[in-house]
6-phospho-alpha-glucosidase (Listeria seeligeri), 441 residues
Amino acid sequence: MKKSSILIAGGGSTYTAGIVVMLLEAKETFPVRQIKFYDNDKERQQKVAEACEIIIRERAPEVAFSYTTDPEEAFTDVDFVMAQLRVGKYALREQDEKIPFKHGVVGQETCGPGGIAYGLRSIGPIIELIDFMERYSPDAWLLNYSNPAAIVAEGTRRLRPDSKVINICDMPICLEDIMARAIGLKNRKEMEVRYFGLNHFGWWTSIQDHAGNDLMPKIKAHVAKQGYTENTPAGQHKEESWLEAMRAGKELLEIEPAFLSNTYLKYYLMADETVEHANKSYTRANEIIDGREKEVFSECERVVQQNSAKDTTFHSNEHASFIVDLARALTFNTKERMLLITENNGSIENFASDAMVEVPCIVGKNGFEPLTMGKIPTFQKGMMEQQVASEKLAVEGWMEGSYQKVWQSITLNKTVPSAKVAKEILDDLIEVNKPYWPELK
Ligand code: NAD
Ligand code: G6P
Ligand code: MN
């Protein structure tokens, strides 16, 4: 059985330890011979790496482990690069959230002007990862979680169209696990879904069990009552700010009763309420800095201090299982059906062929094949056309250093009321993003 070599890029991420635990748990069905970390923040990565080194030593001493900030050392001899960069870190995420709020607009990591700002920071570093990978391990795949995945995917489509890159998102599968548990199934793997949209902008049109029975009525009954909230502590996204997004599933079902909506549609369809209810001086970035980030790094310190991870709280989760499933499908030709972000090319029949969409794909040794989702209704088509135009203008704005195009990108975003407000937000974003953005003229 082939044993893979994995590079985690963004080794200092709060998600890294979960992926390492998952890789070790999956060793019967996806064996690894080597795990490496790469990051451009040496100190941050080292803290995570020292804890993961102990986890690997205790659970799978045969797996080689190393970490580095040197691209050649990192990218040589790898089969998969699992990327999770946060360009500009939480400090800039805080600005992405607070600047739009200051102007009365949704401030969010990946949606609205904040997502566009994050996109303009991320395109360059992701292209850099692809180039390192192709130089040192030309046969490897880049499996990319780095956000904003929609804009990053359009960037990779425009700038590296022939590269082995797959952009992915964990939100649909996390929601599917909630739906599955809500109707008494073990998890999402007992369901087969049809889904269409853009990243963080999509809808389920059908959910069946493997015998072909329609599960939508039961799931909708749950969502109509309590959105995507559930009465179990299992899974990711359980903090209060996330539960608010989960509850919005109920209103989203009223807006589109035929389908089940991704929670991220809340920021576009319920923008006014989102702004009204938000704590604009203490946003999600602040919550994470005081929460998940602190917890991860203090757990790393604890593991290192006691020189054992036997009782560690680090555990695998949906996020980790999805990227490992993808690597397994590519390695062993499992033909697993997975939601990926891909060039449309007719998968959604009445939508632009060059749009990056999120649809179910069959994954095997030679890559992936999107399934056809057919024609979509006018409401979704209209929303998606506006959003995809906003995303494309952001990428073109980055490529051309065009102030005009980035301004138009923000103006076109459904979260933004006018060109005037878009300009005010853009001018504030330019100030804080100077170290990361091209100069816009
Ligand atoms: P984090 O800040 O804890 O980790 C990101 C790491 O990336 C940091 O250690 C940072 O130093 C490193 N980094 C930043 N720029 C880099 C560069 N140019 N080169 C190398 N390393 C660089 O962030 P996090 O909260 O753990 O999230 C990591 C990423 O994963 C984010 O982009 C987040 O949005 C994304 N994410 C995506 C999904 C999805 O559904 N696609 C799900 C969860 C997280
Ligand atoms: C979901 C999305 C990711 C996003 C994450 C943010 O999992 O799919 O794309 O990065 O939520 O979670 P956070 O806890 O950082 O707000
Ligand atoms: Mn996502």
Observations:
- Residues 15 and 171 are 14 Å apart (CA to CA).
- Residues 149, 169-171, 200 surround manganese (II) ion (ligand 3) (CB under 6 Å).
